[in-house]
Design brief:
Blueprint: E1 4-9, H1 17-31, E2 35-38, H2 51-56, H3 60-70, E3 74-79, H4 88-97, E4 115-121, H5 129-141, E5 145-153, H6 156-159, E6 160-162, E7 165-166, H7 169-191
Parallel strand pairs: 1-2, 1-3, 3-4, 4-5
Antiparallel strand pairs: 6-7
Bound molecules: ligand FNR.
GO molecular function: FMN binding; oxidoreductase activity
Keywords: Flavoprotein, FMN
Protein name: NADPH-dependent FMN reductase family protein
């Protein structure tokens, strides 16, 4: 069966560089043979995690994201960097998904043994590199395997001129290699006896 990946950018704004970058990662994964579902977090609006809200009933959007993750083998994420870390949007999304499922099973288990590929974009010179370190660690704590390849696209205003348009051939190839590594890892897993 083909490798199935869930992809999103960690930004909501229309002109987001990360929303422009994520299609490049998706393109690399599709070229490597994966089936990719690209979602917009804007379509899954969630409050900041609040245990009282959860006690009244999990938000429908959180349930939808849990169901989506359950149907996929891994994640592709393009994240902004806010003050040296990942945006609250990304962490909040991961936190809601990690909560127990409707049938009482662990939400964290949804992430277990899945494989992730991460990239970032920023108008600054470092391209959000520090956010990748934080996101990598957060994903690892959830049980995902994050491939060692990663790309931080700096000077994004000059390089990411439109959706899927990364104006730097070497970096475009590097983003494609991140996706290819995710697919390769998953193929090895899926081919291996349990
Ligand atoms: C930023 N930005 C930023 N950039 C960066 O390279 N390192 C950083 O630490 C920060 N910190 C930061 C904090 C906050 C609160 C905001 C709003 C922004 C700038 C950031 O990279 C820029 O706004 C990007 O355009 C955000 O990504 P999207 O929305 O273009 O995908």
């Amino acid at each position: 069966s083909p490798v199935r990946l869930l992809a999103f950018a960690g930004s909501l704004r229309a002109g987001s560089y990360n929303r422009r970058l994520i299609p490049v990662l998706v393109e690399g994964a599709r070229a490597a043979g994966a089936e990719v579902t690209l979602i917009e977090l804007r379509d899954y609006p969630l409050p900041i995690y609040d245990g009282d809200i959860e006690a009244e009933g999990m938000p429908e959007q959180a349930r939808r994201l849990q169901a989506l993750l359950a149907e996929h083998d891994g994640l592709l994420i393009s994240t902004p960097e806010y003050n040296g870390s990942m945006p609250a949007l990304v962490k909040n999304t991961l936190d809601w998904i990690s909560r127990p499922l409707a049938d009482g099973r662990s939400g964290t288990a949804l992430f277990a043994d899945k494989v992730a590929g991460i990239v970032s974009a920023s108008p600054g010179p470092l391209g959000g590199l520090r956010s990748l370190l934080v996101l990598r660690d957060a994903l690892a704590k959830l049980g995902l395997i994050v491939v060692p390849q990663q790309v931080a696209v700096g000077q994004a205003a000059d390089k990411l001129i439109d959706f899927g348009q990364l104006n730097d051939e070497r970096q475009r190839d590097a983003v494609h290699r991140v996706a290819a590594a995710v697919v390769r890892h998953l193929k090895v897993y899926q081919g291996a006896p349990a």
